[in-house]
Design the sequence.
């Protein structure tokens, strides 16, 4: 590691998370290590994509970064302060959108502003601005069930940006979308990132997605999840409009990450079989 | 060909298109009304004709028109209203009491895990106690007045409301709670802003079930030892006042049941406007 915790925006040190499964009588039936010895430094304004096989604990890692779950050991530092719980300074975007079905788009985006203590008179103006930012002006009064999957995730993105966190934590946000919508939202996210300069941690199991989005691509091992390698992405910051995915560089990177992940995918499959049998 | 809705919502409709679209709509409305009412009309016609043509003994089943006339006279003499008011008052009191206690208890049960562990077995046992079989006990404890009827209604409405509240709260989408925690919201805020609104559709479904039960047991309870109410009319119409009054009371109960269901459907569609196909949902429910 080249940086010390005080300098990095987010610093993860020796993180370990164990899960213990108990039956209804409280007896321990199963214990496993989800994450082990995770070390990671993320600089202010950086876009880090974390890619790994399913069940490698990447969502667990994101939960810990969000303060939603406590590590068994190790620490997470944010702006030089140890993280002890959730905060409005981190915005979380989930794969399942997590929009309130009984609220309109506008009310959904305004929701965290109430928690932040923004006066009522200003909430809607801020919410409108953020809906426009994600290209959803005109959809303020729609309920989530009246929106497509891509639109729902745009609303969720607007909602996470509305309370102006310095860090965005995204847990496979585009995994449930069709390929075209996903590519559109990826491009959109890069634009928003350049516009807002948030620090973004993006969890994915898609190699292409990780390479397309991440300035740094962190490759994880299968269970117990560790960071196998962090790749500096030479494609980051390429001019837009260029079909980055068609460049030879992209293919080379894709292969590199794939090589790193191949054994992990195989092992993940073996683990799943074992769990199912 | 443009369909009716697109033609009438377009900004500059050609007069002719507008006309045909409206005619189309009127025709469809009339056709829908016909579909809905034809079975009822046939049923009433059968009711009218069967006793008149001697298929059924008219002293068991008077023709429908006679019942309407009797009912009208009975009501005009001011004899019907007190019974309707008595029954409605008891049903509403029991119902209100049920909502006021079952909803908070349901919240406690589903929100505080230890509470459920200790009390759920008892509640599951209590809800199996048949309300009709409890009637003599209720009479013993609460006398032959309104209190007994209210308590019996209370006893049947409390369970569906309680259970629907519990399931509504328990089955809140965990990802919404997780989002709330990520802000983070306090437990109280998570409850009031996330859990409670998610539970509303389930609670309203419980209310509708409870409303159906409440009329059912109310009538039975009013047949035992009461001196007013529609159940009392049914019981006494049989022996004292003549068979017509029995049918008047039965029809009145049906109308009240319809009205109760209709208002709850209205409440449901107001509260669940955000749900996909909420209108279809309530229409389906209204048929049951």
Sequence:
């Amino acid at each position: 590691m080249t940086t010390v915790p005080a300098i990095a925006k987010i610093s993860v040190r020796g993180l370990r998370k164990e899960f213990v499964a108990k039956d209804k009588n409280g007896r321990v039936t199963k214990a496993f290590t989800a994450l082990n010895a995770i070390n990671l430094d993320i600089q202010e304004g950086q876009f880090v994509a974390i890619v790994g096989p399913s069940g490698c604990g990447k969502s667990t890692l994101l939960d810990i970064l969000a303060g939603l779950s406590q590590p068994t050991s190790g620490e997470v530092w944010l702006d030089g302060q140890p993280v002890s719980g959730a905060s409005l300074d981190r915005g979380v975007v989930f794969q399942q959108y997590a929009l309130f079905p009984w609220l309109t788009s506008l009310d959904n985006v305004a929701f965290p502003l109430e928690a932040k203590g923004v006066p009522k008179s200003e909430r809607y103006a801020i919410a409108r601005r953020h809906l426009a930012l994600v290209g959803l002006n005109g959809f303020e009064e729609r309920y989530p069930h009246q929106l497509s999957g891509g639109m729902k995730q745009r609303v969720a993105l607007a909602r996470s940006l509305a309370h102006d966190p310095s860090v965005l934590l995204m847990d496979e946000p585009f995994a449930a979308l069709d390929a075209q919508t996903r590519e559109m939202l990826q491009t959109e996210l890069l634009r928003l990132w350049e516009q807002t300069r948030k620090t973004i941690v993006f969890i994915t199991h898609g190699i292409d997605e990780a390479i397309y989005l991440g300035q740094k691509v962190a490759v994880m091992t299968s269970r117990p999840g560790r960071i196998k390698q962090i790749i500096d992405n030479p494609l980051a910051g390429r001019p837009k409009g260029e079909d980055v995915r068609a460049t030879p560089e992209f293919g080379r990177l894709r292969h590199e990450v794939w090589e790193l992940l191949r054994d992990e995918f195989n092992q993940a499959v073996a683990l799943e079989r074992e769990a199912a049998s | 060909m443009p369909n009716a809705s697109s033609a009438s919502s377009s900004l500059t409709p050609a007069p002719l298109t507008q006309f045909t679209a409206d005619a189309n709509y009127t025709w469809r409305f009339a056709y829908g009304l016909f579909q809905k009412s034809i079975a009822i009309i046939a049923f009433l016609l059968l009711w009218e004709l069967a006793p008149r043509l001697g298929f059924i003994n008219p002293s068991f089943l008077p023709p429908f028109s006679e019942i309407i006339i009797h009912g009208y006279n009975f009501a005009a003499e001011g004899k019907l209203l007190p019974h309707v008011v008595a029954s409605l008052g008891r049903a509403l009191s029991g119902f209100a009491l049920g909502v006021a206690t079952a909803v908070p208890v349901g919240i406690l049960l589903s929100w505080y895990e230890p509470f459920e562990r200790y009390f759920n077995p008892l509640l599951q046992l209590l809800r199996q106690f048949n309300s009709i079989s409890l009637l003599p006990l209720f009479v013993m404890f609460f006398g032959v007045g309104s209190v007994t009827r209210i308590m019996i209604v209370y006893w049947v409405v409390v369970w569906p409301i309680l259970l629907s509240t519990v399931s509504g709260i328990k089955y809140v989408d965990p990802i919404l709670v997780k989002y709330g925690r990520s802000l983070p919201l306090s437990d109280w805020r998570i409850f009031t802003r996330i859990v409670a609104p998610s539970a509303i559709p389930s609670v309203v479904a419980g209310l509708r079930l409870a409303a159906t039960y409440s009329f059912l047991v109310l009538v039975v309870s009013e047949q035992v030892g009461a001196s007013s109410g529609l159940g009392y009319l049914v019981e006494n119409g049989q022996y004292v006042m003549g068979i017509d009054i029995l049918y008047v009371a039965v029809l009145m109960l049906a109308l009240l049941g319809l009205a109760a269901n209709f208002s709850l459907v209205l409440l449901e569609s107001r509260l669940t406007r955000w749900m996909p196909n909420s209108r279809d949902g309530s229409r389906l429910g209204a048929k049951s």
Residues 1-5 of chain A have pLDDT under 50 and may be disordered. The radius of gyration of chain A is 19 Å. The interface with chain B takes residues 66-68, 85-88, 90, 92, 94, 96, 98, 100-103, 111-112, 115, 143, 145, 163 of chain A (CB under 8 Å). DSSP finds seven helices and ten strands in chain A.
